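Chain A, query sequence.
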Amino acid sequence: MFKKIGPAVRGFTMTKHKLLTIVIVLILAGTGVTTFMGKTEKTIATAPNKVYVKVSVAENVIKQATVSYKASLEASEEGIVSGKVGGKVVQVMFENGQNVTQGDPLIKLDDQDIKNNIASSQAKLKASESQVKSSESQLVSSQTGLQKMQLSVDNAVRTYDRTKELFDGGAISKVELESAETTVSNAKSDLESAKANIETAQASIKTAQANMTAAQVDLKILANSLADTTITAPLTGIIDEKSVSLGQYANLGVALGKVKTISPIYAVIEVDQNDISSLKVGQSAKVKVGSTDIKYYDGIIKTLEASADATSRVFKCKVEVANLDQTLKPGIYASVNIVGDQTSEMIAVTTEALSGNPGNYTVFVNDKGVARKRIVSIGQITNGLVEIKDGVKNGDSVIITNVNTLQDGDAVSVVTE
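Chain A, predicted structure.
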């Protein structure tokens, strides 16, 4: 049994039936419905607040045909850090990731033996130079002696001729004639000796000059070897694959590191034999890097291989990207969109209109002041525009703000700023 909960109202005592009626009225009042004398009436609800939004009109835009490929980034040029001479490593002046300029010193080898050999060759050169001077002086002396011997021969011959005339006339004895003959013979012998001395001096000069030339060649080779004990960067780029440490013996030609040029950098793709005819050097491309923080880079086709791989039947193609800030590194995976010559129309809206997740994208369309949610199928995303394959038609007013908080059926008001 219910108890009375208050005094009489307008001369009537509150009964259980009336109390129940009041409770029902209070409950219904909370729902906008009032019951009175058996009749139910709806109260007029206050109109909901409008959401202020910006919109963009979906339009047909020209779409260029593109083909997408998986790619791997590679250095555009690569040089091996290696020595032209062998030696013990006494200094290492680089680390992986360091930027270097062609000709920068990277490794220093022990050069003491080479310096000792240079000193020895310099001494040999000096001795050879002295020998050349001495032989040249001997040649001059021999040439002077030759002239004197020639005069002696000439005088002896003239004397003999006079003596012979006198002998033939019976004026002198045979002994005197024989003496004149002996003088001529001795003079001619001295002349031949002088000629031999000249030949000896000339030979000595040639030998000394040959020794001097050999010493000069040795010095030049040793000087180059001395310079080669400092191993320099083969080109301008970034150091990678360092494999040298202090104190080790670096053999001639062994790779001690690599220098890679990454500005520009290549995105290398593999093109099927059926598609290779549609590509050409100089063609535009877009290189996409990253899965979450996606970035796009402009590129062009730099090279196309002349022949396909014998097994896979694909052609390697290198797409050049300027990479001026060197943020792209070799070994990174990417994708490349090659822009073709053919074009077509597509419906596009700004990417700001999209909400949802991959495979379940939606947009809101302003339908006479009411937000209508539409499921869309998207395609290519380029320069802030997304291709809408299905769900939006040309001319639709697509909402581009508050898309993550709007609900289907919300009242909206369009603002221009």
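The helical segments are 16-29, 112-168, 174-228. The first helix runs from residue 16 to 29.
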